[in-house]
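Deliverable D5.2: sample structural annotation.
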Amino acid sequence: MKKILFIFNPRSGKGQIKNKLLDILDVFTKAGYQVLVHVTQRQSDAMEVAASQGKGADMIVCSGGDGTLNEVISGMMKLHRIPLLGYIPAGSTNDFASSLKLPKNMVDAARNVVEGMPLPIDIGAFCEERNFVYIAAFGAFTEVSYLTPQDKKNVLGHQAYMIEGVKSLTSIKSYRMQVESDEAVLEGEFIFGMITNTRSVGGFKGLVSKEVELDDGVFEALFITTPRTPMDFSNIINYLFLKEEPNEYVHRFRTARIRIRSAEPVDWVLDGEFGGSHTEVDIVNLPRRIQIMGASTKK
């Protein structure tokens, strides 16, 4: 009998899985799977369970937000044989699920897990010690994702990020950095940077190219240098979201490998979770490393 290791975060997305759990398990069982269920208890729990119990699974299914998905994939990357991955999104924003066009209804997403087609996706290696699925970022607003309390995310959803983001406008900090890749070399003061493999960031689809491919072996990189005036900052926002005329402060390029050096420790965020403080960061694209169940072909 085929085996599913089902790991879910009971607190993600207002705890909605509590009312759908039996229906989800019924979908898996009817599809011929034996299911081992793990309810996450703490930070890093999903990663540890995926690494320790995923060896004999045909598929590991994750339910939670982007942070839970990151933990599960990070655990899977430690396995010698990586099983298929299924994802039932249940978080406040679910950027990567949006990129994959997965169903928002949890039971429909469970059916997609057993009926969908496996799709290869690239995975990011961060400093040779961590992994990320869709974004590694630093600077303005990035701390919002991991500092916003879970209960506020549950109550306000995406609005929670917007509220906390506006609060952080008054404390934007710049970092002196060197950015090196085969495609670009940048040096100066930066207020924000992100390396992504997604079509949606923070619920916004305008920040990255519509032509993003999740298995092409390259990331989309975006860096913003420190604006000189409040008007410059306003023009940056207009460029990012309204696609007005090119902006001298915004640098975009695609790359498979990037090295970033900073004069002082910089806090990084990986898929919405704290990724540590670093002065030296190396990021590498690991092409088509995970097979995730994409949209079902059934009507």
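Annotation notes: The two ends are 26 Å apart (CA to CA). The longest helix spans residues 230-242.
The annotation will be released with the project's public dataset once the embargo ends.
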